[in-house]
Amino acid sequence: MLEQLMQEIRAGGTLETNSLALRLGVSPQMVQAMLEHLERSGKITSYTACDDGCQGCSLQSACSADRRGAKTHLWQA
Amino acid sequence: MSDCHEVAVSSPPRSLSVGTQIPMIALAGQPNMGKSTLFNLLTGLNQHVGNWSGKTIERREGSFKLDERELILVDLPGTYSLTANSPEEVIAREFILRERPDLVVAVVSAANLERSLYLVSELICLPAPLVIALNMMDVARQEGIQVEPEVLEAALGVPVVAMTATRATGVGDLLKVAREVLDGRRVSQPRIPAIRADHRAALDEILMEIEGYVPAPYPSEWSALKLLEGDAEMTRIMRAALPETRWRAVNAILTQHDDAFLAVASGRYEWIARMIRAAVVQPKIGQISLTERLDRVAAHPIWGLGILAGILGLVFWLTFTVGSPVQGWLSTHVVSALATLGRAWLATSPLWLRGLVVDGVIGGAGSVITFLPIMVIFFTTFALLEDIGYMARAAYVMDNLMHLMGLHGKSFLPLFLGFGCNVPSVLGTRTIDSWQARLLTILIAPLVPCTARMAVVAFLAPAFFGANALYVSWGLVMLSLLMLVMSGSLLNQVIFKGQRSAFIMEMPLYHLPDARTIGLLVWQRSTSFVKKAGTTILAMALVVWALSFFPGGELQTSYLARFGQFIEPVGRWMGFDWRLTVALITSFPAKENAIATLGVLFGSSPTGSLGQVLTTAFSPASALSFLVVTMLFIPCMATVAAVRQETGSWKWTLFNVGMLLVISMGAGSAVFHLARALGY
Q: CA-to-CA distance for A32 and B251, rounded, in angstroms?
């Protein structure tokens, strides 16, 4: 199952957890758990929007993310 | 076929058989599963905190009485698995293997079994009786997840007790089961995860090589599995324990199966999926299906793009229908009125002071402040789209488009940040490992239309084009994105030659918008904008005013006019007079300065608001060309500084500036001459 997920990731392109879950025949939470596993193993990197800060930008407050827990979570392989 | 040794969980516990020893229970669990709450609930004040030997990790131990019998409770560090990825994981497994607790209670979350059962899939293979505390039943119920503890127990083959530690419910049941296991009255037959057949052979080969050499207390089959998984700690231990020839044989097997880590973990996830299929009923049906239904359109590679374009159009429509009239009113009734008032008050003051206040402060920074209503509408619509969860979909369909054009996937995240501001976009490229990919992203990042540039367009488009402003603005954003995709594809062809990398997004569920969240966001962004107008833009407006006033007090003979006239021939290619050329150049410190400069140069005119004056001063062809160049021009000073910092090279920074100059001036000239040819 994790191998299938890795195959999808290795194929490249943009993936989305809900459609990945459909393709793998598991729940989106399972895909999320496996992605977190791959992240802990150092296979992929996790980001949430604007983690990098906005030094020197006068519009930095416009980039604030993660309110009410409804944030976009992103991983890169 | 199992991937671990058979567990002797039904044998009488060590300490109870000795009689004099106090039974020990270990609490295991992933972080945030409510393990500490349960520990505190059971031990109360009878606990002490120290460190695990040789580590700085906290060790919590306590005692409690069960049926007048004292028990020791050890709170193991929170761990996701038992593979030596972290010191916590090593501590937890060493404790279970060396100290042999009489019972291990694994605290799992009923609301997220997918994640929390992974640790159980490892614990179930260790030689210690296991009980599952199925915690957070209340959260699971709230989220519409229905877990059946009895079914989970049958599937796992170990006792499962449903509980909610925060409300102290189910704790009595847990203790009752613990008592039965400790007394040997409850026998478990755990069902343990399997490994794929082709890796099973490798596991057996390793087991054969290490049998008889595995140091205590590690079970042989468990050690073989950990070696196959690439566990660093176990590899170190076995390397020291094995004779050289055997180690070489083991190492050869491991090298052949370097992907075994995935096979082993995969086996565990398949096991988890089976448990969940058996014990969990219909997770989160309502909200997910709504999100899925909406995403079938919103996240579709083609329809999604159409929706994105439509929404952008709608945002501009709203901005112009509601924002522009308010802006016009402010411009006529507030800025012009203030200017008249200022002129009257300062009638006897020196000419330079009147010019400074009326043209510099009111005309320059004042003009920028008038587009606050436009910005508020802008910020509100984007905050609303963000809050309901649409922005993630917009990003996803944009990324799909970039892939279609052959652009590198890793470039996406930084570019996405660029819609707010190009500076974090450039800084965000640090997440890209490959230098070439990073460079490409830095080079195209300034083509993402940032809010400051969109604001300039939102202000000038209605002034120049009236009713057609909506189509012009929408077209300008599309043009920017088209330029980005074109330059990206071109550079990608040259630098990357079609290489692709993966990018995974977890979209938030759609939510009903929350007025407070949106209000707060709009407030933050608006105050930040006003602050900027009061500092950076005001300072620049004053500099522009000073240059437009001195040496003689006449605009036509000022330093600014001389400089503008000097570079005017370049501006002419794009249909600009010297004033538009100067406005463009002054937008370098901050994009909004373009408006402040036009405000200084035209704003104090008594004939009407800045918008009205601009309409009469320039032809539609020049105006359109100016907007095109503004969208594609060299980014603001802060972004150029970020480009220099991130590329570490003046050569690339200048290349980027040159590239954007060519793109913007080329597009501007083309648009101007085309519009002229069409009679505008």
A: 33
Task: Give the distance from residue A14's alpha carbon to the nearest chain B alpha carbon, in angstroms.
Answer: 5
Residue ranges of alpha helices (H) inside B324-448 are 324-329, 337-345, 351-355, 366-370, 372-387, 390-404, 412-417, 422-427, 435-444
Q: How is residue B319 written in tokens?
A: 């901005």
Question: Which residues does chain B have within 8 Å of residue A61's beta carbon, measured at their own beta carbons?
Answer: 524-525, 527-528
State pLDDT tens for residues B589-627.
Answer: 778 778 888 887 875 555 556 777 777 888 889 999 999
Mean pLDDT (chain A) is: 69
As a dihedral over the C-alpha atoms of residue B275, residue B280, residue B285, residue B289, rounded to 10 degrees, the angle is 10
Please tell me if residue A62 touches chain B, with a CB cutoff of 8 Å. yes
What is the distance between the alpha carbons of residues B73 and B182, in angstroms, rounded to a whole number?
13
- What pLDDT digit, counting tens, does each position of B456-497 carry? 888 888 888 877 888 888 899 889 988 988 888 787 777 656
Is the whole model's pTM more than 0.90, yes or no? Answer: no
Asked whether residue B21 carries a pLDDT value surpassing 90, the answer given is no
Measured in whole angstroms, the distance separating CA B328 from the mean position of its chain's CA atoms is 38
pLDDT at A76 over 90: no
Nearest to B29 by CA among B102, B113, B100, B101: B113
* Chain B partners within 8 Å of A71 (Cβ): 508
Query: Do the beta carbons of residue B537 and residue B592 sit within 8 Å?
Result: yes
What pairs with residue B417 in β-bridges? none
- pLDDT tops 50 at residue B14: no
User: Under a CB-based contact definition with an 8 Å cutoff, are residues B458 and B319 in contact?
Assistant: yes
Q: Which chain A residues touch B376 with a CB distance below 8 Å? A: none
Q: Per-domain residue ranges for chain A?
A: 2-76
* CB-based contact A77:A51 (threshold 8 Å): no
Question: B635 near B660, Cβ under 8 Å?
Answer: yes
**The amino acid at B671:** V
Q: DSSP string covering B305-342, please?
A: HHHHHHHHHHHHHHIIIIIHHHHHHIIIIIIIHHHHHH
What is the percent of chain A with per-residue pLDDT over 70, rounded to a whole number? 57
| Cα separation of the two ends of chain B | 79
Tokens of B658: 């040159």
- Condensed to tens digits (0 to 9), the pLDDT of residues B37-55 reads 999 999 988 888 888 876 7
